[in-house]
């Protein structure tokens, strides 16, 4: 058992995964993962259900034994090279999806559970203050609201001052309005505690809004990792692009560092050549009654109004339809003739043969399985 | 994801097919196999005995007499079931949906007869209404020489009905309370009359509960030994007992037992379907509003009279008669020491059986809940075999088994405890299983991730959370074993009398007064806790 009763916060040392693998029978749930989380940072593991993200979390926590690979937490190898530190000796806190609060204990009993047989009431109070539940020590856990249970679970995970906190879909059981508020609160609490945190989610917005590093998983592998801006604006594959949000795909042709498509010409930033896909987010598709010289003519065919913004469907001369996300004002109407151009980042990727543009269709189909 | 991996595993090796991806520890699996084999032993031996002498068995079964037995037993079960429903439906409706004065009291009183063992109920009816009984004593000065006979079909039907109708009442009341009143309101709004609403909305929702309760009553009536024997109604159980005690015709007894078990298994299949159907009718509790009770008006008087006469016949009369005999016995003096010995026997046998059943139930439930796989599922199913085997059949199978393969065990304390433990094992398996389900592995994982060793987790998380289920299950087995009659009659060592066999022997000898004290003692020890445990919903689950 670790002695965490002193209350002093040791510097967290981050998390590193190298070639992590885990198979259940013939299903490779985790098929070689490399991941780096900076000390004190918040990292999110994002992916469709069944991509292996929860398994990864359980491997890090020591609840499952990996088949191969290395896990380093706070500079200490906890798994790999024949070493396997059991869950209880890893100094890793975990917040479960359903919170897993002990129903036969009160709030203080839950929060103090990781502090040894005689938990220091001062440390329990500190942990509860951190999550904004000071004075709730004696309350039975079943009397708490969903948001409060969530915070008790977080306080329980943080009380022993772990090197790393893992959060498994921590907000999925909350209703939408509460979820948004708690996301901000929790990320603030984690930052105040100065602890390295890794959380698993299937919600793109959530992953990007609270983490400094986003790792997108697909079929047991990390498809791409980086800052939220990088993975959103510079997707390395078409699947990535469409998984993280709406994406317009235009055929183009590249040569000599430039690429030509119906919306004009743009630099590729690489020596890519031949048939390419130009990926552009709807918010980077600009249009107006008049535009720059390179703009393409188009006609408004649909419009959906969301209050803060509007999504306008534009049909180009070739017949292809692209969407543009603009502010809610001014209103456009089907039939309006406009000029369209790209105003913002665009990614140029080699053409994928017959690629379906809907990534969600790919969920659950395992290319790895024979 | 876990589902897909398990699915993939199932397609692979035979070992994976049997034991799943997460293999249970060998010690646990070994214990589970032992428990499963023990629970299956009576049924297995029955099959072996019948198969070993198939010609005699077939001859014994294919007779006019067997047909008569089937008709009589099925007839009794059907009549008891019908009467139980006829009593339970009005009481359930009155105590849940009407403004019947004192409806909570009526509900409690009306479920209490369940805890009176059928043989005690039968004893009290025989002693009250039979020849040389209470009523005849009272009427003798008036020149009444003979009473209409209590023995036979009528007596068995009356006694079994009065002590089993709560098996329908309890699930029915629960279903009525669970029913979403919004459904009825919706039907009313759509222009249906109250009667039509009852027929088209209420009744279909209650049928699964009535059906489940009815099957339990039928099973009880089929497997009951004490009441039918004391009331001399020749049903399967009594015939098996007579065939057994007559010393010859063992194969015959086994063959008859097998026929009875097959009938009960068929009923069990029905029960499983009915219970499954009930799950479909569950509504989310969040949407429920309390229903306004139906005003009875002047119908309240017949309603009270109905509830009153049921409670009077099933509870007040038996308890009153019992107290009458008991005071009479006390005033004439009795042998306290013999009674104490018998009570001691009852307690020790029941406690030992409860202990063994609890250990077996924990093993079986752990395997079934934590390591679900076809193999552990089979072990769990076998754990429930005791439900489908009447006590008399278990007793006779074990008596045959011991005389043939383990003579020193025949009529020994060990085999008695063994029989009681496997008979009531299902009563322990189901609460232990449901308490384990309430401790998801996630809680233990959370505890371990907080730095506690597996042993500490077992001590601080798993044990406190499972304890109430294990204790409840153990208590149920103890209380049922305490009042068990047929297996104790057949398997207990000679001179090893329990309170139950005491009541039996004295009643069959017509010594009604002397039966009173042991019967009262049994009720005092077993009834209150049994009532509380049953009220918590442990019955028939």
SSE arrangement:
The complex is a heterodimer of chains A (370) and B (541).
Chain A: E1 15-24, E2 27-37, E3 42-46, H1 53-61, E4 68-73, E5 76-80, E6 83-84, E7 92-95, H2 107-112, H3 121-130, H4 146-158, E8 164-168, H5 176-193, E9 196-201, H6 204-210, E10 213-218, E11 221-226, H7 228-233, H8 238-243, E12 248-255, E13 258-261, E14 264-267, E15 274-280, E16 285-288, E17 296-305, E18 309-316, E19 321-327, E20 337-342, E21 346-350
Parallel strand pairs in A: 3-9, 3-10, 7-8, 8-9
Antiparallel strand pairs in A: 1-2, 1-4, 4-5, 5-6, 10-11, 12-13, 12-15, 13-14, 15-21, 16-20, 17-18, 17-20, 18-19
Chain B: H1 2-10, H2 14-19, H3 26-52, H4 54-61, H5 64-97, H6 103-111, H7 118-129, H8 134-139, H9 153-164, H10 166-178, H11 181-189, H12 194-223, H13 226-230, H14 236-245, H15 250-280, H16 300-332, H17 336-370, H18 374-383, H19 385-388, H20 391-405, H21 413-437, H22 441-449, H23 454-482, H24 486-491, H25 499-508, H26 512-538
Helix pairs in contact in B: 3-15, 3-17, 3-18, 3-20, 4-15, 5-6, 5-9, 5-10, 5-12, 7-9, 7-16, 10-12, 11-12, 12-15, 14-15, 15-20, 16-26, 17-18, 17-21, 17-23, 20-21, 21-23, 22-23, 23-26, 25-26
């Amino acid at each position: 058992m670790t002695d965490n009763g002193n209350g002093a916060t040791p510097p967290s040392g981050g998390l590193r995964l190298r070639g992590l693998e885990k198979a259940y029978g013939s299903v490779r749930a985790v098929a070689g993962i490399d991941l780096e989380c900076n000390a004190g940072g918040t990292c999110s593991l994002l992916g469709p259900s069944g991509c292996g993200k929860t398994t990864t979390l359980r491997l890090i926590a020591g609840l499952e034994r990996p088949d191969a690979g290395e896990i380093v937490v706070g500079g200490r190898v906890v798994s790999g090279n024949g070493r396997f530190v059991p869950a209880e000796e890893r100094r890793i806190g975990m917040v479960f999806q359903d919170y897993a609060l002990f129903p036969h204990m009160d709030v203080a009993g839950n929060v103090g559970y990781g502090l040894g047989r005689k938990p220091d009431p001062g440390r329990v109070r500190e942990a509860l203050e951190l999550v904004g539940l000071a004075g709730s020590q004696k309350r039975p856990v079943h009397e708490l609201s969903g948001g409060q249970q969530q915070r008790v679970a977080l306080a329980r995970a943080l009380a022993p001052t772990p090197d790393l906190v893992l959060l498994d879909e921590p907000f999925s059981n909350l209703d939408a309005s509460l979820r948004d508020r708690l996301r901000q609160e929790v990320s603030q609490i984690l930052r105040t505690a100065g602890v390295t945190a890794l959380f698993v989610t299937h919600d793109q917005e959530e992953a990007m809004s609270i983490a400094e590093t986003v790792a997108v998983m697909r079929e047991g592998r990390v498809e791409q990792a980086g800052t939220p801006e990088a993975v959103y604006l510079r997707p390395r594959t078409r699947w990535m692009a469409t998984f993280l949000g709406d994406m317009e795909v235009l055929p183009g042709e590249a040569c000599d560092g430039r690429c030509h498509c119906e919306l004009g010409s743009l630099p590729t930033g690489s020596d890519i050549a031949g048939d390419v896909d130009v990926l552009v987010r709807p918010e980077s598709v600009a249009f107006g009654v008049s535009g720059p010289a390179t703009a393409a003519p188009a006609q408004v065919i649909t419009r959906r109004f969301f209050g803060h913004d509007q999504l306008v469907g534009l049909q180009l001369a070739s017949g292809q339809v692209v969407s543009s996300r603009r502010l809610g004002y001014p209103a456009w109407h089907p039939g309006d003739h406009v000029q369209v151009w790209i105003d913002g980042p665009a990614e140029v990727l080699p053409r994928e043969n017959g690629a379906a543009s809907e990534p969600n269709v790919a969920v659950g189909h395992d290319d790895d399985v024979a | 994801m876990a589902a897909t991996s398990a699915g993939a595993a199932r397609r692979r090796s035979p070992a994976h097919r049997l034991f799943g991806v997460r293999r249970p520890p060998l010690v646990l699996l070994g214990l589970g196999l032992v428990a499963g084999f023990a629970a299956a032993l009576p049924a297995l031996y029955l099959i072996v005995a019948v198969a070993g002498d198939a010609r005699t068995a077939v001859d014994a079964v294919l007779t006019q007499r067997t047909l008569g037995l089937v008709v009589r037993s099925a007839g009794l079960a059907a009549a008891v079931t019908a009467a139980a429903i006829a009593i339970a439906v009005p009481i359930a409706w009155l105590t849940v949906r009407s403004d019947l004065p004192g409806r909570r009291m009526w509900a409690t009183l009306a479920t209490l007869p369940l805890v009176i063992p059928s043989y005690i109920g039968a004893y009290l009816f025989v002693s009250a209404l039979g020849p040389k009984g209470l009523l005849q004593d009272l009427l003798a000065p008036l020149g009444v020489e003979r009473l209409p006979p209590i023995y036979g079909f009528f007596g068995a039907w009356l006694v079994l009905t009065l002590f089993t109708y709560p098996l329908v009442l309890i699930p029915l009341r629960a279903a009525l309370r669970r029913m979403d009143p919004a459904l009825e309101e919706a039907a009313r709004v759509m222009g249906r009359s109250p009667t039509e609403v009852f027929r088209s909305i209420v009744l279909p929702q209650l049928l699964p509960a009535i059906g489940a309760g009815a099957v339990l009553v039928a099973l009880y009536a089929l497997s009951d030994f004490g009441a039918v024997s004391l009331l001399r109604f020749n049903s399967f159980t009594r015939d098996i007992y007579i065939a057994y005690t007559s010393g010859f015709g063992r194969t015959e007894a086994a063959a008859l037992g097998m026929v009875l078990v097959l009938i009960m298994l068929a009923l069990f299949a029905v029960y499983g379907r009915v219970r499954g159907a009930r799950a479909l009718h569950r509504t989310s509790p969040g949407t429920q509003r309390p229903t306004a009770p139906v005003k009875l008006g002047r119908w309240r008087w017949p309603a009270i009279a109905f509830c009153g006469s049921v409670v009077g016949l099933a509870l007040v009369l038996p308890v009153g008669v019992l107290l009458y005999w008991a005071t009479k016995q006390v005033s004439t003096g009795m042998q306290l020491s013999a009674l104490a010995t018998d009570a001691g026997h009852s307690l020790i046998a029941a406690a030992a059986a409860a202990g063994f059943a609890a250990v077996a139930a924990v093993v079986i439930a752990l395997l079934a809940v934590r390591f679900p796989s076809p193999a552990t599922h089979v072990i769990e199913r076998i754990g429930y075999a005791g439900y489908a085997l009447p006590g008399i059949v278990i007793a006779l199978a074990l008596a045959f088994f011991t005389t043939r393969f383990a003579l020193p065990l025949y009529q020994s304390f060990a085999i008695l405890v063994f029989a009681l433990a496997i008979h009531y094992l299902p009563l322990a398996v189901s609460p232990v299983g449901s308490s384990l389900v309430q401790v998801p592995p996630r809680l233990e994982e959370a505890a371990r991730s907080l730095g506690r060793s597996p042993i500490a987790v077992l001590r601080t998380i798993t044990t406190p959370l499972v304890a109430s289920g294990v204790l409840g299950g153990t208590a149920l087995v103890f209380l049922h074993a305490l009042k068990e009659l047929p297996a104790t009659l057949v398997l207990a060592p000679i001179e090893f009398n329990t309170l139950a066999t005491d009541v039996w022997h004295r009643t069959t000898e017509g010594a009604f007064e002397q039966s009173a004290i042991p019967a009262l003692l049994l009720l005092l020890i077993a009834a209150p806790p049994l009532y509380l445990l049953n009220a918590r919903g442990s019955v028939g689950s």
